[in-house]
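Exercise 7. Predict the joint structure of the components listed below.
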Amino acid sequence: MTAVEETRHRPRLWRDVRVLRAVIQVLAGAAVLIILYVLWFNLTNNLRAAGLPTGFDFLTQPLGVDIPGSDISPSAPIWRGLLNAVKNTLALVVVGIPLLTLIGVLVGVARLSTNWLVAKAAGLYVEIIRNIPPLLIIFFVFNAVVLRFPVLQESLNISDLVIVNNRYLAMVGFTAQPNFGPFLAIIAVALLIAAGVWWWRTRRSEQTGEHHHRFLWALGVFSAISLIGFFALGGPIGLSRPILDGRALEGGYTGLAAYWAVLAALVLYTASHVAEIVRGSILAVPRGQSEAANAIALTSFQRLRYVVMPQAMRIAIPPIISQYLNFTKNTSLAIAIGYAEMTRITFQLIGNGQPAPQMIFLLMGGYLIFSLIISLIVNVVNRRMQLVTR
Amino acid sequence: MKASKLFAALTALMLVLAACTQAADTTTTTSGETTETTEAAAEETTTSAAGEETTTTAGEEAPAGGGLLAEVQARGTLNCGVNNTVPGFGFVDEAGEHVGFDIDFCRAIAAGVLGDAEAVTYVDLTAEQRFTALQSGEVDVLVRNTTYTSSRDGGLAATFLTTTFYDGQGMMVAADSGFTTIDDMTDTTICVLSGTTTELNLTARMADIPYTPLTFDENPQIQAAFIEGQCDGWTSDKSQLAGVRSAWPEDQGGPEALVILEETFSKEPLGPAVLDGDSQWAQVVDWIVLATMQAEEFGIDSTNVDTFADTEDTNIRNFLGLPVETEEGTAPFDPGLGLATDFAAQVITQVGNYAEIYDRNVGPGSPLALERLLNSLWTDGGLHYPPPYR
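Solution:
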């Protein structure tokens, strides 16, 4: 009797769901580990059999080549060249993501515009660009647009502010003058005071009920303090105009043609996807919300700004993150036109005799870290944007 | 082999897991027994892994001992890694056929190894891909205007064989550019193939001259950039530059629009390369290349090879694999390379001697119009000195 009852309480081991679950988990984990081990074993064994290096010692070897658009000497170690490659990829990501977000949101909203022309133009852009592979867009922008810019000798010079030719695009930039340090301190103080004003306006609005206008107030205070500081310190920031001296380009902010080509192509491409996400998210906000906004006589801008967009953005952010990640990964396509980003430099170094498996491993790790950082940042933003249920 | 290893390891692991799960559910009295089982299982794992390891290593060494020749002969075709973008050396013509100096050496190797010069599978490779393709066994031999250097020999597991073309690096500029020496080229942009020795030589040559390198994967991309004036100079091996210049589009002014500057700033011995570790295969490829030079020295070419059937010269009889008197009667001389005794005759009949290969593809009569210079027999003041066939 007791034996029967015990079996009822505790089923046999191979029929106990909890045990089975644990065993399957462990088995699956072990299988993954074994597969990884076999792959690793296979790789290192074959490398050793072929007499190829298996370690990462090569990273301290001299680079041997010049990297376009950098001052790194060819005798610098390889890891410095790789860091420069990361910097070049970062230059695409940091400039590209805000740009594509701006264009994407504007186009996405424009597609829903009641203005026929605006809506159709936005629709045309999205439908064409979204359905072309990004590599083709890069080739097109580089070969059909950037390469057709004037040659160096006939550079287009727009009143010394912008110089355009098919090698560089240079823009007027800023340079630090004497007193730049103190000016930075003044800016910091101005920011603090502006934040204080913001807080004061918010409180006052809560107490009296009058409109806070906190943004205008804060902006006004900040601008006033910075401007006074700027003139008091005798102009601590100067303009640096690009100057074409013979073949050399000096001053300003200069980017290689390939950089602008990749940036433009990928921003246009990814923005078309973001536009679709934004449009879809706006449509996903229940119609009742807009109707309610209309009912309380909000203007169409107010309706978008205060009612529709906050809710639409909540829906849009997760898919937009994945577009940011795509953008980051697609920068590797810049290899096609010779922009010195991570993939380009990696393959260049492999071509110059550095071990391919290790280099590719580093490259994959690099993109992984890039993606994880972007996910992390945007996830923090996303958490703040989500509905707080109380 | 891998599968059986995986299976063995999995089985061992399952034993351990089974033992462990039991231990968790049974009382402490049985735990001693369980530990024993675990240890036994663990031992089993080690033994099986170790056993497999030895066999794996032995299995991998087997082909290294002398397998590629047999493998190619069993396969019936030669996988030859080539260039497809350099006219005269490795190029795809209007009919879609691979033609060129390097291609003829692929054909010669196929004729010598397989008796059929057409039994070649051409694998088009970029400069960056070539050594990885060689290391992975994707190609049996690399004949892709590849420079013999110490780091490629050492770090990339390549074995370089007899140089087929003694070359040097030069600089090509537009005829109307006004550049007469490389020292004039301050602040210029110079196009160069990525992953080549030319890239490294350029860096060394321009150590004191400010310039921007523009690197691409393939010659057609450089050509597009050069035509659009994105770069002022194009550097490569002089033979390659001559090839590109000979095929320069007529609407861009044809070959006359370009000048190759006089200066040669590197040594570029170009030749076939095979993977380290298979000396038999290396010898076979080497002696086939040498046979084309030896044939020129003997005055044997594809048109007159038949007339040597009755020659009295023992050296020539040895070379062509004609029967010679030995102590045991008449038999063709076999140098013991593992090839048919008439391999040289096959190479000469089907492909030709070195002079024929040179003249047909790059010699004074061809569009490239390159003089023989160093690429002549020692008797003519060149560097070809094939070791004796005996």
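Discussion. Chain B touches chain A through 58 residues (CB under 8 Å).
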